[in-house]
Amino acid sequence: MLVSIQGIKGSYHHDVACALYGQEVSILECLSFDKMAESIFNSEAQVGIMAIENSIAGSIIPNYTIIDKLNLKIIGEYYININHNLLAYEGVKISNIEKISSHPMALLQCKDYLKKTNKIIIEDVDTAHVAKLISEKKLKNVAAIASISASKIYGLDILERNIQSVDYNQTRFVIISKKVDQKTKKKANKASIKFVLSHRNGSLAKVLNIISDYDINLTKIQSVPIIESPWKYSFFADLTFPSLKNYKKCFSDLLSVSEELKEFGLYNNFKK
């Protein structure tokens, strides 16, 4: 199996791929979420790993739109604790560091630590990409915020450990594919859907009441602007349910109160 990830080996996406498919998993490295999703759409890889939300920084809203636009399916999810570390070239001290670079989400998750420094902060396409550049170009004035696995792969020293703003820092990743395995659907207890509502009073309340009536738990709801229709929104929701039969009845009822309703996937809820 070839697994597509956003980032390169040593990134947190790589950590998830290894956790799910083993340390020897074949990786297709992509330096953007768009490229990663396109690789699945074009059948270059069988599945992709995509970060979708973080317990500190919140949702990665553009990723919902990417999944929707390419009509990809969510076939699973995985949560990992994100422990950010400050990495530097071997032998370099913190006093030598002038710049700190990482992916924007990692920088956001470490903003309290970064506020205390007088370093120049630079955004990059990936946490591990910075680590690789430091190693290859022997950069002694730049530090990366990245994982412990990145420090091992690229031979960097760890100057500071666990620099995220809070100790409990989890990221939820979804596994995406072009197809949904029917066996997986039959055993599913979680669904990801999208619905679009009219501007009538109480339209969202009707949706929430239907979900509640079927004893279904709304674990997440996220509004995303519809670019073609200013001030109109799509709602992306995650639902966990006691039985597939309940969910299917709920979905059928939601059709009657939604202008548009789409299912992204049925899969098993990951136990955190």
Describe the structure.
This protein is of the alpha/beta class. The chain is built from 10 helices and 15 strands. It has helices at 12-21, 33-41, 61-69, 104-109, 111-115, 127-137, 148-154, 182-186, 203-213, 244-255, and strands at residues 2-6, 26-30, 47-54, 58-59, 73-81, 85-88, 99-102, 120-123, 142-146, 157-160, 170-177, 190-196, 217-225, 233-240, 260-267. Strands 1, 2, 3, 4, 5 and 11 form a 6-stranded mixed sheet that branches. It has a 5-stranded mixed sheet with strand order 8-7-9-6-10. Strands 13-14-12-15 form a 4-stranded antiparallel sheet, with helices on both faces. The protein is elongated, with a radius of gyration of 20 Å.
Q: How many DSSP E strands?
A: 15
Q: Per DSSP, what share of the residues sits in E-state strands of 2 or more residues?
A: 25-35%
Q: What is the CA-based Rg, rounded?
A: 20 Å
Shape: elongated
| Percent helix range | 25-40%
Would you tell me the structural class of the helices and strands?
alpha/beta
Helix-strand topology string: EHEHEEHEEEHHEHEHEEHEHEEHE
Q: Which segments are poorly predicted (pLDDT under 50) over 5 or more consecutive residues?
A: none
Q: What's the number of helices?
A: 10
- Mind summarizing the main beta sheet? 6 strands, mixed
Distance between the termini: 25 Å
What's the short story on this structure?
By secondary structure, this protein is α/β, with parallel strands linked by helices. It is 31% helix and 33% strand.
What is the secondary structure topology, with strand pairs?
Elements: E1 2-6, H1 12-21, E2 26-30, H2 33-41, E3 47-54, E4 58-59, H3 61-69, E5 73-81, E6 85-88, E7 99-102, H4 104-109, H5 111-115, E8 120-123, H6 127-137, E9 142-146, H7 148-154, E10 157-160, E11 170-177, H8 182-186, E12 190-196, H9 203-213, E13 217-225, E14 233-240, H10 244-255, E15 260-267
Parallel strand pairs: 1-2, 1-3, 7-8, 7-9
Antiparallel strand pairs: 3-4, 3-11, 5-11, 6-9, 6-10, 12-14, 12-15, 13-14
